[in-house]
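Input/output pair, single chain:
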Amino acid sequence: MARAAAQARSHGPGLCELSPAPACAVDHRGSLLAILKTFRHLLDRNLRFHAQDVALIYDVRRYTFRELTERAFRLADALHRLGLRLQDRMAMLAMNCPEYIEFYWAAEASGLIAVPLNFRLAAPELAQIINDCAPLSLTFEAQYADTVESIRAQLSSVRHFICIGSPKPGWAIDYAQLLERGDPAGPSLSPGARDLVTILYTSGTTGRPKGVMHTHEAAMWIALMQTIEMSCDVETRFLVVMPMYHLGGRAMSSGQHLRGGTVVLQRKFDPLELVRAIERERVTQVHLAPTMLQAVLDLPDIERYDLSSVRSLMHAAAPISTALRRRALQKFGPILIDGYGSTETGGTMLRRGQAKLDGTPRQLQRLASVGQPMLHCEARIVDDHDVEVPLGAVGELCFRSPQTMSGYWNNSIATAETLRSGWLHTGDLARMDEDGFVYLVDRKKDMIISGGENIYSREVEEALMSHEIVADAAVIGMPDPYWGESVLAIIVCKSGATADSAALVAHCRAHIAGYKTPKRIEFVDQLPRLPSGKVSKVELRQRFLKP
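Output:
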C-alpha cells in the first residue's frame, strides 16, 4: 500500500484514523474486543489487575507487569520527547531480549509503529527495509553496531540511533540512559483501533521482503486467537524461542500477556537449553518450527528431562512432514497443534487430539492436514478465476478474517494482487475435505508441470521423507527438453546413512506415480532455510539450476 495511504490523519489529541480499510476488512465492533480496542487498553488493564504478577522470565531475571510496563512507558515518553509522534515508525535490530518486549509495548502504548528487523539479514538488505519504512529511530544491540555503522549514512530518515548494551558507539544514544529521561506514566497519546501498530517484513520467498501492516484491531485478534487455540491463562507459562522479529514470537507473547500470564523468553534456539528451561520453569505452552521440533527429538538424552508440564505444543512457520509429526506424537502424546497461516492473515489449526496415531481411515488421514479454519476465519479454495472449486479439488487457498493485514507498506501493486474480491490470496495450493480439514499440496509458484501433468512438490517430499535414510527433503522443478519440467530432489541423509539414489527412486515409485518420481537427486549436508523456517527454494534453484 502506498506510503501516503498508510499515513495517519490526525483528528484531534489522541485520535487518528487510517485511510479506508481494504475490501477484505470486516466490521467487528461490538465483538469480543469491544473493550480491549487497542493494546494500550490491554497494557492499562494488566497494570491494574496483574501489576505484581510475573510477565516475563528471561534467564534468571523475573519482570512483573508493573516493572515491564513502566519501562515501556518510559521508552515511549522518551521517544516522544525526541520528536516521535503518532504513526511514526521505530525500528529494532536485536536478538530476543527483554528490551524487545519494551519496544513493542512502547509502540502499543503511544501510537508509534514498531518495525522489527531480521538480524540475520546482510547490511544492504537491512538498509533496503529501513529506507522503505523510513523510521525516525533505530534501536540496536551493541553487537550490531558495526553493521549499523556500515549503512548509517544511507539511512536518511533515522534521526536517533539507540544502543542497547556496550560498547556504545559515540554516535548513538545509550538505551538505559534514554529510559531514565522518560516518564513511567508514558506520553499523553492514545492510539486508535485502526492505527497501525506493526509493520512486519516477510522473509521474501518470492522476491524482496514486503512490509505487512497490522492495525491494533487486527493484532489484537491475532493475540486473541493464539490465546484461545493455545489455551493460555493467568497460570500458564509460554516458552517463546521464535525470534521476536517474526510474527510467531510476537503473536505468542501477546496472546499469553492478553491473559495476564507469563512468557519465558529464550534469546536463541538451543534444543538442550530449551528442554532445561521447560523442566526448570514448568513451561506449559511451547511454539516451535518443525526444524526445532526435530532437533529436540534428536537430543540423545531427552528422556532425562521432565517435560510433563507441557500441555500444548504448537509447530508452525513451515510445513511438517507426516513422519516427523508421528514421531512427535509418540514422544509427547496428543498435545500437538499445527498452526498454518502467514504474516498477512490468520489461517487454520489442527487442534490437540485431531492428529491421531490410531483411529479410522478418515481420522488417520488428518496426520497430513493443517487443520480447520481458526475461529473468526473463513477459508475457501478457488481456481484461477477466483471461483470456488468442489470439495477435494486443488486450488488456491484464500482467507477472510479480522486478523488480515491492512496491506503492504508502500506497495499498492502487491496489496492489490493479494487482497482480491474481499479475500486474501495465500499463493498456496490446497484441497479441503468434507469436514473442513485443509491439506496443503504446494506453493502455487512451485508447482511442477511435466508433460502436461501437475506435480505438487509436497507430495513428492512426503514420499521421500517416509524413507528410513532421509532426514530432510526438498523438491523443485528443473528444465526438461522433452517433458518441459521434471523433478529434482535435494536430500539430507540421516546421520550414518548411506546415500542411495536408486533406492529412493524405487521407494517413490512404490508410493506415487512414476512421472512424479525424481529424475535427479542431489545430496547435501543441510537445506537452506529462511528465518521463518521454510526451505528457501529460490536458493536451491540458484544453486542447482545453473544455466
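The chain has three domains: 3-17+25-216, 263-437, 447-544. Residues 65-81 form the longest helix (17 residues).
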